[in-house]
Amino acid sequence: MRLDKLGVVIALIAGYAVAAAPFATFRANRIVAGEPQTLLAALPSWAGPTLLAVIAAAVLVGLFRTPSTLRLAASFAALAALLLLIGTAADHLTPPGNTYARVSPASGFWLLLFAFALLAADALTRLRPTPPLRILVLVLAGAFLGFVLFTGSWDRLSILKEYSARADSFWAEASKHVTLALGSLAAAVIVGIPLGVLCHRVQKLRAAVLNVLNIVQTIPSIALFGILIAPLGWIAAHVPGAADIGIKGIGMAPAFVALFLYSLLPVVANTVVGLAGVPVQANDAARGVGMTERQRLFRVEFPLAFPVILTGVRIVLVQNIGLATIAALIGGGGFGVFVFQGIGQTAMDLVLLGAVPTVLLAFAAAIILDAAVELSSPFHARTSA
Q: Which GO terms describe its cellular component (predicted)?
């Protein structure tokens, strides 16, 4: 059996994580320095060897050129064991009745999680699953995480203790985060697609619009948020009713406008590229059967350009989910509230309370929209038929 190049990298990462990196960190309370714990020290006597055996088996499967289905099963088994047993480490390290102690996953856990997630991604790539199957895998992964949370396996982990102290505010900030990401995307689609059609039709307008939007993209997000404070503050002070509907110098308004401006370039550019890629023969055939320009646009050009336009929407949504985190700096809310509070308090688990949901949302959005793009492509439609 020959070695797999990616498997060698995964084996090196896993070997370092087990042999040299701490698996968990114990702290007497949330602000003191942590005590790193190795994998065997962090877990009960039965769990440590069990996890090592699962890790070793998964590494061996990945190290050689084994069937993709076996690689996928091994990676999923290793990931499930890691996610279940990190909660066991928290139970094992926390003294009975102690409500102040904090146990957090350490670098070894995160490296192992990354290594086997990489193995799973490689196996899925080789298997080339259909879009519905990819969505099913995502749903099953979400269901597994929900099961772990519902059973209370992670309740003693520090991140869950941070959540329990902020449960109400967590869901309020989650709502703001999703509103900012999806709302700015919807506004960009409503404005950007017609603007892209106009740029496609009017060649002289295209360069000017795309250059302006490119300039907007080069402005750092924090700087753009700051630039918008003054004009929106002036509008709130001088336009009757503006403040009543939420337009203010700080808060969600400047964050929403900034995300909207950042979203325009991918939507407009992909609309132009998608329409430009429509075959000339398709338009000629539409003219031949007597279609008007409007009918050609909606019945011929848009359906053929839709996968490219949807790719732009995917880029925007993933981008906005990440950028919405920075909105907390100007009072816009979102998961960034926990990230910046955690940085200010030197509480990394509070940082994770904001960062982990953001990453998971972006990851899920990318998978779902990637599947939608593939399903909507003409090539997929032909092969499915």
A: plasma membrane
Residue % of the chain over a pLDDT of 90: 52
Q: Is residue 119 part of a domain?
A: yes
- Clarify whether residues 94 and 184 are in a common domain: no
Which residue type occupies 19? A
Using an 8 Å Cβ cutoff, are 4 and 64 in contact? yes
Dig out the tokens for 142 from the structure.
Answer: 């979400």
Question: What CATH number should be reported for the domain holding residue 180?
Answer: 1.10.3720.10
What separation in angstroms does the CA of 354 have from each of 142, 160, 324, 329? 18, 12, 11, 14
Computed over every residue of the chain, the mean pLDDT equals 88
The closest alpha carbon to 116, from 219, 222, 221, 11, belongs to: 11
How many domains does one find in the chain? 2
For the question of whether the overall pTM of this predicted structure is more than 0.90, the answer is: no
Contacts 24+ apart (CB under 8 A), 134-142: 134/367, 134/370, 134/371, 135/367, 135/368, 135/371, 138/364, 138/367, 138/368, 142/364
Q: What is the CA radius of gyration of the chain?
A: 25
Domain that holds residue 47: 5-128
* Phi, psi for 37 (deg, rounded to 5): -125, 135
Residues 51 and 122 grouped into a single domain: yes
Instruction: State which residues of the chain have pLDDT below 70.
Output: 242, 244-246, 378-385
Within a domain: residue 37?
yes
**Where does a domain end: 74, 109, 128?**
128
Q: How many residues does the chain have?
A: 385
| CA separation for the pair 35, 167 (Å, rounded) | 27
Strands 35-37 and 24-27: antiparallel
